[in-house]
Amino acid sequence: MEQINAIGRRKAAVARVYVKAGSGKIVINKKELERYFPSSILQFVVKQPLAKLEALDKYDIKINLKGGGFKGQSEAARLAIARALVKINPEDKPALRAEGFMTRDPRSVERKKPGQPKARKKFQFSKR
């Protein structure tokens, strides 16, 4: 199997994923998964599509992450991995879609409006 690549986005984070047959090693920005995401919850999020398909030790994955915070980055990586796995085997798509791994979450930060301190918050109103 040659290298398969896919892209995933979430909030301001962009993940480019390169998947090839291997032993289950995940490298993010030239660091091990455990060093890049010390939180076990975020490691779990990144591995979710692989765990669903029981493919944790079938593929070596290299991920380039840019932008956003750690939560957005982990979810962008999850989407990219899911897309790459579907490119490898299209029959896996319904199983991943059922878990919600194939959906790009469209929610992002609302812009700040002029004349307001934040996106929706207003300055205190004074009647007199």
UniProtKB/TrEMBL annotation:
Belongs to the universal ribosomal protein uS9 family. Residues 114-128 have a biased composition (Basic residues). Gene3D superfamilies: 3.30.230.10. SUPFAM superfamilies: Ribosomal protein S5 domain 2-like. It comes from Porphyromonas canoris. Keywords: Ribonucleoprotein, Ribosomal protein. Residues 96-113 have a biased composition (Basic and acidic residues). This is Small ribosomal subunit protein uS9. The lineage of its organism: Bacteria, Pseudomonadati, Bacteroidota, Bacteroidia, Bacteroidales. InterPro entries: Ribosomal_Su5_D2-typ_SF, Ribosomal_uS9, Ribosomal_uS9_bac/plastid, Ribosomal_uS9_CS, Ribsml_uS5_D2-typ_fold_subgr.
